[in-house]
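Thread: "does anyone have the structure for this chain?"

Original post by V.I.:
We have the sequence but no experimental structure in hand. Need at least a predicted one for the grant figures.
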Amino acid sequence: MTTKKEVFLKMLDKNMQSCNGGTYQWQLGKRVTVKGEIVMCTNGIHLTLHPQAWQGSRVFIAETNKVYDFQKDGFKAVCRSAKLLMELSPEQLEIYAEGEEPLSKAYEEGRAPLLKAYEEGEEPLLKAYEEGEEPLWKAYEEGRASLLKAYEEGRAPLLKAYKEGEAPLLKAYKEGKVSLWKAYKEKCQKIIVKILKKVKTK
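Reply from O.Q.:
Generated one for you, tokens below.
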């Protein structure tokens, strides 16, 4: 089974070292692999399609086989392994930025109503939970151990109602965001591939 390779961008400092929370020394053409569980912001190789959101003075095209998660409103992806293919020149970076800017804007504009719908639906659920939980907690504090059971029993249906109401809202938001991210990612990657093809034909 052939794994589909994807291209992203990697921001590094002037010495080709990671500079957004890491200090790894990168080399062109050398594949880097991370061991252990891949967790966003904790363990993994982080790539982007929106380089202006991150620190660094040099931008490289990086190839990876699998993206485990994406974050920062779609501007950061985490993977287990990656390889630097080439460095973007200022002219190539400008070409990419001009193509990516409207895609980034479209992604944000599409995400905004999804997030708003989630927040508007979740707000009254959270309010109802907090209003019901507050007197229970007060009673628990006043009676402490003897009232812990009453607190837990009273809180359980409130928490259940909140979770049941919030779950479909969160699902709808996540599904919509994933769809937007996929479209944004594929279009950005087409720009990167086009740059790579131009370099190979020279």
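V.I.: this helps a lot. The first helix runs from residue 90 to 143.
O.Q.: and The longest strand covers residues 6-12.
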